[in-house]
Amino acid sequence: MAHSPLWQILWVLAAVIAGALMFGAWTGPHRSVSNLSRWAVRLHIRAVPEWLKARAADRWAFRGGLATILVLLGIAGITLLQRGSDVPNADAGRNERDATPAPPGKNDAATDQRPGRHIDLDLKNAILVHVPKTKQVRLVVLKDDPEADQFSWEIDGFLRAEGYTVVPRLFFAMTAGGKTPVGTTLYTDEKNPNVVIIRIGLNDRS
Fold first, then answer.
1. Residue 138's beta-bridge partner residues?
2. Structure pTM?
3. What φ, ψ does residue 115 adopt, rounded to 5°?
4. Which residue, of 98, 127, 160, is where some domain finishes?
5. Which residue, 187, 188, 181, 172, is CA-closest to 203?
6. Residue 109 covered by a domain
């Protein structure tokens, strides 16, 4: 309501009327009667009531106009304060949405208390001993597991640095109720004996 153009127009009109009354009450062509009554005569208003002719009418009109302007200024100040408070409230609502905790299982950094895996000397030796460089290597990684995905890229970098041929990786996901593989396993692909699989399951390190 306070932000509508109609309200603003009414506010300006009220201020102008109050200011005009104050000006008319303060100045006038004669001092024997009220200034307001003399202005009424100049505006061709013939039927001027007696209470308007009295000198006290000027004082009451001036005081009433001053009070009206003060009230209008107070309303304008309250409107500006309310308008300014809307921006912090919107920011608070946005921050509240941003601070909403992620569903269980989505924030892996907070939910996974195990240390992240890194390729160590034992795994490097196992690859060098059991995986001939004449064969291709395929990484099969647990799906939707950021830690396993990061670990697989470390193994990928080691394989390429050692001269292995790395074919495009695959991802696997266990069905509901099934047992998810853990740790890192090396075995020959059943469908292609020229490919060695390095399967990366759940983090089993404590």
1. 167, 197
2. 0.45
3. -70, 145
4. 98
5. 181
6. no
